[in-house]
Specification:
CATH architecture: 3-Layer(aba) Sandwich
CATH superfamily: NADH Oxidase
Distance between the termini: 35 Å
Helix content: 25-40%
Number of domains: 1
Number of strands: 4
Strand order of the largest sheet: 1-2-4-3
Structural class: alpha+beta
CATH topology: NADH Oxidase
Strand content: 15-25%
Order of helices and strands: HHEHEHEHE
CATH class: Alpha Beta
Largest sheet: 4 strands, antiparallel
């Protein structure tokens, strides 16, 4: 898939088939996350991969918009490590870039995925931290549900030329 086409056609997919996803495919999308840019190249991220259906069901009860995890084959929790960041607060930006890379890589492999926000919702973050027993320095940013898509979405028109400001506002 050509990169611009992949960016333009990626959609949030919340319905999945029962087709299995291999661990190799999940590692491939996580690898793409690890190649995201990060402030001062600190790469302050960790990735929790979840394929246990009991855990996926528990997460779906924690997060009000994660009901699709009952159908998903995998989820990835993207976390920032506050001990690895040299520029305070940039773990959020860095892990967001990693999350986007994962979404694009999943799309490129023919998988469907959706970004479910954890940060900055303290109740969601704390529930995930408790469920997975994260150490204090690990902060969950996003939860990505992944499966083979069982829905198709139209390509919306999002280009708005009036929001481009050459050389000045």
């Amino acid at each position: 898939m050509e990169i611009i086409q992949g960016i333009l056609t990626r959609r949030s997919i919340r319905k999945y088939t029962h087709q299995e996803i291999t661990k190799e495919q999940i590692y491939e999308v996580v690898k793409a996350g690890m190649y995201a840019p990060s402030a001062r190249n600190q790469q302050p991220w960790h990735f929790v991969i979840v394929d246990d259906s009991e855990l996926l069901n528990k997460i779906s009860k924690i997060h009000p918009y994660a009901k699709m995890l009952t159908e998903a084959k995998w989820a990835i929790i993207v976390c920032g490590d506050e001990q690895l960041e040299l520029s305070k607060g940039y773990w959020v930006v860095d892990c967001s870039a990693a999350t986007q890379n994962i979404l694009l890589a999943a799309h490129g492999l023919g998988l469907g995925a959706v970004w479910l926000g954890l940060y900055p919702r303290e109740e969601r973050k704390n529930a995930i931290k408790d469920l997975f027993q994260f150490p204090d320095n690990i902060q969950p940013l996003s939860l990505i549900s992944i499966g083979y898509p069982n829905e198709e979405k139209e390509l919306p028109e999002r280009f708005k030329k009036e929001r481009i400001h050459p050389n000045q506002w």
